[in-house]
Automatic annotation (TrEMBL):
Domain of life: Bacteria
Pfam family, one: CitMHS_2
Lineage: Bacteria, Pseudomonadati, Pseudomonadota, Alphaproteobacteria, Hyphomicrobiales
Keyword Transmembrane carried by entry: yes
Protein name as annotated: Sodium:proton antiporter
Transmembrane segments: 40-61, 105-125, 137-159, 171-190, 219-238, 258-277, 330-348, 414-432, 452-474
Keywords recorded for this protein, A-Z: Membrane, Signal, Transmembrane, Transmembrane helix
Annotated signal peptide: 1-30
Length: 475
């Protein structure tokens, strides 16, 4: 059975299960709101546990983790749900779980799936001489297209050719690190298509082009500084390797699977359309409002993935080194993260009445006006470990939750939240989904990519001073 037929069966099964749940759901299930002010802080421990598992297990039980990471994610998710059932009961827990999975996780993972599958069908072959200028040009190009086809799409198209180009280089791990900085994160700051947090903001009413108009100065500054720094570092390693020019024979470049570019365009169009077309038709799923335009968008995402598998030559995917493991790992781990984060998010949303009151109190000046630098750093540092998409939503709500107001009088606050979520998602491998996929692809290709904590040494030394400069210059 071919890949696309298997995927079709899974998709149809998922749709049938979704329809069954939809038919049997009860609006009364969500009658009681999950009040974070009344949740014990111990319910946040499974979230800490899953983060620690992702950080330490690959270091100490690498082979076990590679085989059993899905079980580990399920274990921590089960602890979270069991704790919530014990404290709040089954109905409230089920309603909170369905709400998070249907409105946050499903759009998030289906967009990643569509872009991962389509981008994975675009095979760039030929010789690519990994000089510092060439590597810098690829990073600049990737950062440029990340806001158009998403950080996931740009990462999946470019990471494999970049790894192949640098395969003969003795020092090449830094190339992957800067790729994550620029292509998998910061380059996606200029549109809702670029990064999941901005996509969620778009779903909550932020205008499509608001980020482009508001965030371009900070984005241009960050990309320019990082590219200049990368060229210096790469030139140093290039010279240390004893190279002075091209590193191999030149073979003309060829691009296969061009139909996938059109399919990525369909993904982009469906996201834009879901924000413009609002038929005011919705369904109740265990107390969660599911709007028709969003259902259509998710169906398009599944359709794009299936179409890409059906229309792309399997030899092209094989030539591209395409493998399902990166997206499978992201899907399982982030399903666990999105589940474990439910009580943590509720506690944060409780504001000054919740366990995180000391953090919330820092967000305002004495006169009650928002403290934008603190919004930037708090959103960003939490995004480094809580995943930047749901963290963005929490601070979006803490800042008022009204898109019109946040794009108007509080535009600087929304800008701080957006920049913190997108930029600082690069601080760790789990800050943004493409980070983990790039890490997994590079690791499988034999690149000596830094582990969880070594990567954070890189990001801490390079990104934190950059973010401090952005705070001083722009906030």
């Amino acid at each position: 059975m071919t890949d696309w037929k298997r995927a079709a069966i899974v998709a149809l099964g998922g749709c049938a299960a979704f329809a069954a749940i939809l038919a049997s759901s009860s609006p009364a299930a969500a009658a009681e709101v999950l009040d974070g002010a009344k949740l014990p802080w111990l319910l946040g421990l499974p979230f800490v546990g899953i983060l620690m598992s992702i950080a330490f297990a690959p270091l100490f039980v690498r082979e076990w983790w590679h085989i059993h990471y899905a079980k580990a994610a399920a274990f921590w998710a089960f602890l979270t749900l069991a704790g919530l059932v014990a404290v709040k009961g089954f109905d409230v827990t089920a309603a909170a779980f369905v709400h998070n999975m249907a409105l946050e996780y499903a759009p998030f993972i289906l967009m990643l799936l569509a872009l991962f599958t389509a981008a994975g069908g675009i095979a760039i072959t030929g010789s690519l001489n990994a000089t510092p200028l060439f590597n810098g040009a690829i990073l600049a190009f990737g950062a440029g297209i990340a806001s158009v086809i998403g950080t996931t799409g740009a990462s999946m198209i470019l990471i494999r050719p970049l790894i192949r180009a640098n395969a003969s280089r003795r020092f090449n791990a830094h190339v992957v690190v800067f790729f994550i900085f620029l292509v998998s994160n910061i380059g996606g700051a200029l549109s809702p298509l670029g990064d999941p947090p901005l996509f969620l903001g778009f779903l909550h009413g932020v205008d499509f082009f608001w980020t482009t108009q508001k965030l371009w100065p900070e984005t241009l500054f960050a990309v320019g500084v990082l590219l200049a720094l990368f060229l210096l570092i790469d030139a140093y390693y290039f010279k240390r390797e004893g190279r002075s020019g091209a590193s191999g024979p030149i073979i003309p470049l060829r691009v296969k699977g061009l139909v996938n570019i059109a399919l990525i365009g369909v993904v982009v169009a469906s996201i834009v359309a879901s924000g413009l077309w609002r038929p005011d038709v919705s369904f109740d799923l265990y107390g969660t409002k599911i709007e028709l335009q969003n259902l259509v968008r998710e169906a398009v995402m599944i359709g794009v993935a299936l179409a890409s598998l059906a229309l792309t030559n399997r030899a092209s995917r094989a030539e591209n080194g395409f493998d399902w493991e990166p997206i499978r790992e992201v899907a399982y781990l982030f399903a666990g993260i999105f589940t474990c984060i439910i009580p943590v998010m509720a506690m944060l949303k409780a504001g000054k009445d919740g366990p995180f009151a000391f953090v919330i109190g820092l967000l305002e000046h004495a006169d009650g006006s928002p403290n934008n630098p603190v919004y930037f750093w708090t959103t960003g540092l939490l995004s480094s470990f809580l995943d930047n998409a749901p963290t963005y939503l929490v601070f979006f709500e803490l800042a008022g939750g009204e898109a019109a107001k946040l794009m108007g009088p509080l535009a600087d606050t929304l800008a701080a939240i957006s920049l913190g979520a997108v930029f600082m998602g690069a601080n760790s491998y789990i800050g943004n989904a493409p980070n983990f996929m790039v890490y997994a692809i590079a690791r499988d290709a034999g690149v000596k990519t830094p582990g969880f904590f070594r990567y954070m040494l890189w990001s801490g030394a390079i990104l934190l001073p950059l973010f401090a400069a952005i705070t001083w210059l722009f906030m």
